[in-house]
Amino acid sequence: MAEALSAEQIEERIGGLNGWSTDGRRITRSYAVPHIQGAAFIVHIAAIQNDLGHHSEATLGYKTVQVSISSSDLGGYVAEHDIELARRIEAAAPAHGAI
Fold first, then answer.
1. Could you tell me which of 44, 40, 38, 41 has the C-alpha nearest to residue 61?
2. What is the C-alpha separation between 67 and 77, in angstroms, rounded?
3. Cβ–Cβ under 8 Å, residues 67 and 28
């Protein structure tokens, strides 16, 4: 079973991920992206989540996509697989014009 990371471990791991932040219980990122490209980005995020068997919250807004990741099986805390999901989302963002 996955183990929750400490706030310090989370900060260390997201340090190389541009724009990601944490409140110690989840990691979040807001992307600026044109609306139609944002919708495609949401679908891409869903495919990544499906591949990993791990799901998060991704919300499409007007010219934004908001992502919030934590592990429900850990009571809403962050584990290593949450960091991997963020890495993959970050890697997919440029293809959708998300900054």
1. 38
2. 15
3. yes
Residue 73: what pLDDT? 84
Which tokens in the block code for residue 54? 């791990």
Task: Give the pTM.
Answer: 0.94
Encoded amino acid at 1, one letter: M
* Nearest alpha carbon to residue 30 among 66, 68, 83: 66
Distance (Å, rounded) from C-alpha 17 to C-alpha 76? 21
C-beta of residue 74 within 8 angstroms of C-beta of residue 2:
yes
In the numeric block, which tokens belong to residue 63? 């010219």
In this structure, what token pair is assigned to residue 14? 């997201």
> Is the CB of residue 59 less than 8 Å from the CB of residue 66?
yes
